[in-house]
Amino acid sequence: MNLDALIPRDDFLVSATEAIPPADFASSMKVTDLERDSFTYHTLRKPDFQRETANWDPDKVAELVKSFLEGDLIPSVILWRSSHSGNIFVIDGAHRLSALIAWVHDDYGDSHTSTRFFDKNIPDEQKRAAKETRDLISKSVGSFEDLRQASRNPDTADEERVRLARNLSAYALTLQWVRGEHDKAESSFFKINQQATPIDKTELAIIKSRRKPNAVAARALLRAGTGHKYWSAFNPEIQEEIESIAVEVYDLLFKPSLDQSIRNTDLPVAGKGYSADSLKMILELVNYVNNIKDEMWLENSHAAPRRGKAATSTSQLENDVDGAQTLAFMKRVRRAALRIAGNHPSSLALHPAVYFYSATGQFQPSAFLATIRFVLELTQRNRLIEFTKVRSKFEEFLVQYKYFMNQLVRQHGGIPRSIDAILVMFQVILENIATGITDGEIIEAFSGLAVLRPIKVRTAVDYEHKREFTRETKVMIRLQEILDKASLCGICGSRLPLKLSSVDHILRKEDGGLGEPRNAQLTHPYCNSGFKEHLNSLTIAN
């Protein structure tokens, strides 16, 4: 669940008019210090490079609250006080503090502070997680308000609630303090957070490069321009445009919210915006469409050149001081997203169930990124017409052998290792399917490429089924139902997401066609524009 709103972020270097003299620091913090109107709560901050406070699930939050109320040992929270701003920064323990703040404020990522922070854009997954947490805590120890009332009215309250309420007067979080200036605090943060629970490599890279345009763009896109505004130093016009593009791209990629049981035929193109892989996937997307290589922005990177467009420069990516480069990066991402998922005339309107979801119904980030690369390569090489001619056959192959994607990801791993393998598979299918060869011959062609050798055709013997339907089997059945009943494009004959469909005149208006139902067909936007124009030009030429 996402509790990122509950402790604001700030820059270590934000200064006041004069330095604040050093003082003795408190050794503990009571829960009442976390109430909305307390002096302590209003000075609490997270460093602006702190990872999102979004790694705990409902059970862990509920367990922390219960442990605190029962007086169980909870690791110390490590703080640093800025001698300039007077703010108190959380160096270690942000999740612990945020869990208690969530309980005190009754805001598990879905209430007042979170709603303002995320500009009312609370994903359905977060709302469900918040409800689950609230229910767990209510059954276990009660809400903070329940215990407050129990303390005030011990004669009429539940005895267990009274006991827990009285514990609040005795128990407190133990505090430790980092002493020194901001550089000492920052080095302490990285040292501490790479020990017990190391920061994810992608998150660490973004933290250290947090002012570079690719990092800012990825943060904005993943949260639809809400949450902590890493772009707040840019002028208001730039900020407004960044947030506008972020909302547009987020809606293209992550709406509607993904139901893991796949009970909705309208699947999001990019899976859950609220998952462990999302930041890594979006950063990879930003870097690819903007031709950013690892060695251009990562510290001590000596990575080999990655598949994609040829680099035009190996110069280092600098911090973005005015937002212009961040904005340019985001506009390129928007163009890529519109090409696969929008209603723009250039959109191929790819069906998510065909390209982005595995045989078991799981969203595959590697398949999403490989598809983006595949489509952009087709665009750059002027092969969209060629692709559209065989698109229905191409996609039927993908549907028939959906488990090939699972096999490649299992063999090569997730992002970024399996992206190239899936891309090569797409390329081999396209190169061969236009020649009219059989599926078996295409699969035989795979065996000549080391990266595709993990692919094996399955038979009925490879499947084992128990008497009851497993969750995985149920999801597979629903996904197949979506594929079987999908609408088909009236021009290319491949599957068509209805929300992205274009209504086309079968007999063109120029040729006397009327806007009546019997002269209408649903098509992909690109089929109704670029490809149809191509077909009409051939007709005229003949």
Describe the structure.
With 542 residues, the protein is α/β, with parallel strands linked by helices. Helices cover 47% and strands 6% of the residues. The strands form three sheets. It has a six-stranded mixed β-sheet, sandwiched between helices. A two-stranded antiparallel sheet has the order 7-8. It has a two-stranded antiparallel ribbon with strand order 9-10. Helix 10 (213-222) packs across helix 11 (236-254). The longest helix is centred in the middle third of the chain and has 19 residues, at 236-254. The model is unreliable at 302-313 (pLDDT under 50).
The best one-word shape is elongated
Major beta sheet summary: 6 strands, mixed
| Terminal-residue CA separation | 61 Å
Q: What structural class should be given to the helix and strand makeup?
A: alpha/beta
Strand order of the largest sheet: 1-3-5-4-6-2
Rg calc:
27 Å
Which whole number gives the mean pLDDT? 88
Beta-strand percent range? 5-15%
In percent, how helical is the residue content?
Answer: 40-55%
Uncertain spans: 302-313
